[in-house]
Amino acid sequence: DKSEGRILEGLRCTLLFGFNHDNKKASISFRLRVPEGKYRILDLSSQTEVNWSYDNGLRIERELEPQEVCVLKIEQV
């Protein structure tokens, strides 16, 4: 696959790294197994909040440019 996600878990937050290894734009969907609740997700490069949904896990959808990497900070609030 030409896209992947990696997780780094901390005490107060989780970092989600999304990689698009392709030379074309990619739509990527991530699902994290976390308890149902309220979350704040921040894109660390743009400093903007990211929309999410909960469907049997935290679901995040992103559009990544060719060779782009996104880093999302996920906190339960």
TrEMBL record:
This is Glycosyl hydrolases family 38 C-terminal beta sandwich domain-containing protein. It comes from marine sediment metagenome.
